[in-house]
Amino acid sequence: MKYAIFLGCTVPVRNLSYELSARRAAACLGVEFVDIPEFSCCGYPTRSVHHETSLLLAARNLALAEERGLDICTLCSACTSVLTEASRKLATDEGLLEKVNRSLGAVGRRYLGKVRVKHLARVFYEDVGPDAIKNAVKRPLDAFRIASHYGCHYLKPSEIYDRFDHPEVPKSLDELVTATGAQAVDYATKKECCGGAILAVDEELALRMARAKLDDIKASGADAINLICPFCSVMYGANQRKIQTKYGAKYDLPIMYYPQVLGLALGIDAEELGLSQNPVKPRAILAKIS
Amino acid sequence: MERGSSAEKDGVVVTVLDPKFKYEIATEPGGENIKYCFQCGTCTSGCPVAELDGKYNPRRIIRMAILGMRERVLSSDFIWLCSTCYTCYERCPQDVRITEVMNALKNMAVRAGYVHPAFRAQAELIAAHGRLYEVDEFTNEKRAELGLPTLPSGSPEVAEIYGMTGLASLLSGKGA
Ligand code: SF4
Ligand code: SF4
Question: What is the ipTM of this complex?
Answer without folding.
Answer: 0.93
